[in-house]
């Protein structure tokens, strides 16, 4: 640029000739004429880029890139990986920048790494929402647990909904949608999904899908239209894809700790509500203000919620358990061999015998696990007291006993012998069936302090901790007005 200015100044200001300027600057007269006739536009691009050092390796690079066309998208050569291989395997001594320049042009020619163009969209309020699942880690009862994060986002206002589940089975999927509809106060006309197996039975050509029958029934009940993305095209619901990562980085950092998942879901609900004060880039109003405008466009919720349960029939086996989804749930031992009815909810399993509920358990989502209620086995253990210490339900229960319960069991065994002592202790454990655990534990602690070694003594102490019904004085009961017996005198015609 300084040479360009020098040439024009010498010619226009000082009146030097082209030949004089050529002698002083060393440029050709044609170059000087160009500088005098047209504005400076820098150096012109080369029509062909030579690679004097890299040239001997171009065929090798092209071969690697052609092989990449048959490789998974996330396991293809990067320019850095190609440079490293050339150095390690072929003794390349040139620069990495030349490799990067050639790889960029070669990939474009082969159609690798080509970036798609996208349209800027402005969806209508209240018409569409996007749905997706993610994965997160939380701390439950002091242990890290991987959970599934259900995310739903309005395309119009951007209002988010996030809820955690132990799995993403169909019942959890339906339950999450029902909670989301309740959160938004209505149903969006169209929901956009991945091709998740809880909704899609088979992906057909184009946009056609064979839906799961139960999903079709759920969709018909809430009257929304389901639209499914093309396989591998998550960008078609990019808003909720971003919400999955955003909620994990902002709502779940640091790792939330609680005794149960419901506590964390309550916090997430408050955070989703608080997000309403946020203004999304490119919008002129906060999220909540936009959602208030689209609320009127939502379909109303049904008067009766969808029945999201699964009915099963099962038979109690010799261990007094029923098998549900490859997991075992206990029932009272008197029901061994009987046919039972099971109602599976999202978070619990209810077991019925002849329309009477006999067991209720927290639902398990892994495989080959046992959910045993020790109360179901106490009568059987009274008949077989020597199996008490090795019984699985008792061993699991012992882990949560307060120290006085261990002390009372030891005292009973010392006072009555192993067998009779265990039988007497089981009589104490049966008290948990009809009394609150804290009252029974308080009575046991008192019995240990008092040196009591009989179950009747614990039962007697329990009356002290059990709230007694209040006795109301007779004068405080409501009374009817006194009867006027004088009217009876006229029944026989007498006055």
Description:
This protein has 495 residues and is α/β, with parallel strands linked by helices. Helix content is 38%, strand content 17%. The chain is built from 17 helices and 15 strands. It has helices at 2-12, 18-25, 29-37, 58-68, 79-90, 96-110, 170-184, 213-222, 238-250, 261-274, 287-294, 378-383, 392-398, 403-416, 418-429, 437-450, 455-465, and strands at 128-140, 143-154, 160-165, 190-193, 200-203, 209-211, 225-228, 257-258, 310-315, 321-324, 327-330, 339-344, 348-353, 356-362, 370-371. The strands form four sheets. Strands 1, 2, 3, 4, 7 and 8 form a six-stranded mixed β-sheet that branches. A four-stranded antiparallel β-sheet has the order 9-12-13-14, with no helix packed on it. Helix 14 crosses helix 15 (418-429), helix 14 packs across helix 16 and helix 16 (437-450) packs across helix 17. It is elongated, with a radius of gyration of 39 Å. It starts with a helix and ends in a 30-residue tail after the last helix.
Task: List strands and helices in order, with pairings.
Blueprint: H1 2-12, H2 18-25, H3 29-37, H4 58-68, H5 79-90, H6 96-110, E1 128-140, E2 143-154, E3 160-165, H7 170-184, E4 190-193, E5 200-203, E6 209-211, H8 213-222, E7 225-228, H9 238-250, E8 257-258, H10 261-274, H11 287-294, E9 310-315, E10 321-324, E11 327-330, E12 339-344, E13 348-353, E14 356-362, E15 370-371, H12 378-383, H13 392-398, H14 403-416, H15 418-429, H16 437-450, H17 455-465
Parallel strand pairs: 1-4, 1-8, 4-7, 11-15
Antiparallel strand pairs: 1-2, 2-3, 5-6, 9-12, 10-11, 12-13, 13-14
Helix pairs in contact: 4-6, 5-6, 14-15, 14-16, 15-17, 16-17
């Amino acid at each position: 640029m300084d040479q360009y200015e020098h040439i024009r100044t010498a010619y226009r200001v000082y009146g030097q000739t082209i030949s004089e300027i050529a002698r002083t600057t060393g440029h050709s007269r044609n170059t000087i004429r160009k500088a005098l006739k047209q504005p400076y536009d820098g150096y012109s691009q080369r029509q062909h880029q030579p690679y004097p050092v890299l040239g001997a390796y171009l065929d090798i690079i092209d071969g690697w890139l052609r092989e990449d066309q048959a490789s998974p998208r996330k396991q293809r050569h990067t320019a850095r990986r190609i440079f490293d291989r050339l150095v390690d395997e072929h003794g390349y001594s040139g620069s990495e920048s030349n490799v990067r320049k050639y790889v960029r042009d070669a990939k474009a020619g082969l159609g690798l790494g080509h970036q798609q163009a996208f349209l800027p969209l402005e969806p209508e309020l209240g018409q569409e929402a996007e749905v997706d699942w993610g994965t997160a880690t939380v701390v439950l009862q002091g242990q890290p647990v991987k959970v599934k994060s259900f995310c739903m986002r309005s395309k119009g206002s951007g209002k988010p909904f996030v809820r955690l589940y132990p799995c993403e089975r169909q019942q959890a999927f339906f339950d999450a949608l029902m909670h989301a509809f309740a959160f938004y106060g209505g149903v969006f006309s169209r929901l956009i999904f991945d091709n998740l197996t809880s909704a899609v039975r088979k992906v057909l050509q184009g946009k056609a899908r064979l839906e799961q029958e139960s999903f079709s029934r759920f969709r018909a009940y809430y009257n929304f239209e389901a639209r499914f993305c093309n396989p591998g095209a998550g960008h078609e619901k990019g808003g909720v894809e971003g919400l999955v990562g955003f909620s994990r980085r902002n709502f779940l950092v640091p790792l939330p700790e609680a005794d149960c998942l419901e506590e964390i879901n309550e916090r997430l609900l408050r955070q989703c509500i608080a997000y309403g004060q946020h203004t999304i880039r490119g919008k002129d109003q906060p999220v909540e203000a936009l959602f208030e405008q689209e609320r009127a466009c939502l379909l109303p919720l049904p008067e009766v919620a969808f029945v999201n349960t699964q009915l099963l029939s099962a038979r109690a086996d010799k261990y007094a358990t029923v098998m549900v989804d490859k997991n075992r749930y206990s029932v009272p031992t008197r029901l061994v061999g009987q046919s039972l009815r099971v109602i599976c909810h999202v978070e619990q399993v209810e077991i019925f015998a002849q329309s009477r509920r006999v067991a209720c358990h927290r639902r398990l989502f892994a495989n080959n696990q046992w959910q045993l209620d020790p109360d179901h086995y106490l009568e059987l253990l009274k008949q077989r007291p020597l199996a008490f210490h090795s019984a699985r339900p008792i061993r699991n229960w012992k882990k949560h006993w307060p120290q006085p319960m261990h002390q009372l069991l030891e005292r009973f065994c010392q006072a009555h012998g192993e067998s009779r002592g265990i039988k007497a202790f089981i009589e104490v454990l049966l008290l948990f069936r009809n009394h609150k655990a804290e009252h029974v534990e308080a009575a046991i602690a008192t019995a240990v302090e008092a040196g009591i070694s009989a179950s009747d003594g614990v039962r007697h102490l329990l009356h002290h901790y059990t709230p007694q019904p209040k006795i109301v004085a007779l004068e405080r009961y409501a009374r009817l007005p006194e009867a006027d017996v004088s009217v009876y005198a006229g029944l026989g015609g007498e006055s």
